[in-house]
């Protein structure tokens, strides 16, 4: 979209609060070998929690580089808080969903256990998805990672501290999902086989039914289209 | 999203205009082996050009089935015509883009040659993308396939018969891409390395600059988010 002249690097909140950061291993190879950053390079460090700072290179050795942290940098996170609550799709589709949700600035992706969902997520797959989110955050220049969690039982959604505005995507609904807005919102995206009647009854109590076109969208397509709409403006 | 009780089958416009259709090969295996459609099944046949008809099974043999065409069926295509003009991304990302664009009901995906684009598309990759679009159309229940073409030279966009409304996504623009609307629209999505100055000068003459958030989105993410916005409502 635009020349990404600044390299972004995801560090821990503790590192971002300090004065120096040492870059080793894979991030070192990516920045100082593949991208060939030189001693006069300026980087943007982000902590995954919405804070960003500029940094300059102090030293580059053969295996590590040291950076000095500078002033605060723009976070480039959307102000609206949007959560995606999705019936867990297959791993490759979940990966794509998390990458795109991170780029768009979604605040959380929660994977739901559902009667007709393909399969759940586990600690290992969440770890992989977190690495994908980290890479996407560095690529797009945001500062806040989406929270990733699951599997959540539909009967236990109250444990999630949902925003007041919760939408349920349903092709049979009459109202379209509204674009834009400021208030925190969550979107429930069911499995391609649909929610069971029991699940739908439980969800109807907390959610407003809306539609996103007339077609049967895949879980990740519906989730990303909904995120794009809610984060518009 | 909702139980897809009806199986959709993409056939040629000539077949859809006839009275009987013979199903063989891969579609036969998918419908009558994997999905185990029986003699009382009702199908929805679509021609990829926006027409759909119901069909019933006449005979199922070991290698083929014969369908009888019935009344017109709903097309489930968006009324707005939206085209995506994108700097060609890597093959796997192009595949995702085409799948998602098809699901959302985009009318065309045109791949642009660009100085900083990763690579172009060729006849072989367009053929693969057309098969992906066909599968996505059957899955989502639309009736119109997106036109897929390229590579197009930026200096030769006039050959494309663009709609009057052409948006150029640029993170530096001040106006956001507007959601919803009825008039035909096209969106230009540049490579992640950005357009060159020459390219930008050529595009500025025909397009309105708009932005989609403050981040550097990947080509396919920007394209799908833009399609979701333009097709909203």
Protein model, in words:
- Chain A is of the alpha/beta class.
- Chain A folds into 2 domains: 7-72, Ribosomal Protein L25, Chain P, CATH 2.40.240.20; 82-230, Alpha/beta knot (3-Layer(aba) Sandwich), CATH 3.40.1280.
- Chain A has 6 helices and 11 strands.
- Chain A has helices at 13-17, 25-34, 91-104, 123-140, 197-204, 219-230, and strands at 7-10, 20-24, 42-46, 52-60, 64-72, 82-87, 108-112, 147-152, 165-169, 185-189, 208-210.
- In chain A, strands 8-7-6-10-9-11 form a 6-stranded parallel sheet, with helices on one face. Chain A has a 5-stranded mixed sheet with strand order 1-3-4-5-2.
User: Helix amount of chain A, in percent?
Assistant: 25-40%
CATH class category label of the largest domain in chain A: Alpha Beta
Task: Give the number of DSSP strands of chain A.
Answer: 11
Give the overall shape of chain A.
Answer: elongated
Most extensive interface: A-B, 49 and 49 residues
| Termini Cα gap of chain A | 18 Å
Sheet having the most strands of chain A: 6 strands, parallel
**Structural class based on helices, strands and sheet pairing of chain A:** alpha/beta
| H-E order of chain A | EHEHEEEEHEHEEEHEH
Calculate the mean pLDDT score of chain A and round it. 92
CATH superfamily descriptor of the largest domain in chain A:
SPOUT methyltransferase, trefoil knot domain
- Total number of distinct structural domains of chain A: 2
Tell me which CATH architecture of the largest domain in chain A applies here.
Answer: 3-Layer(aba) Sandwich
Q: Strands of the largest sheet of chain A, in order across it?
A: 8-7-6-10-9-11
CATH topology of the largest domain in chain A: Alpha/beta knot
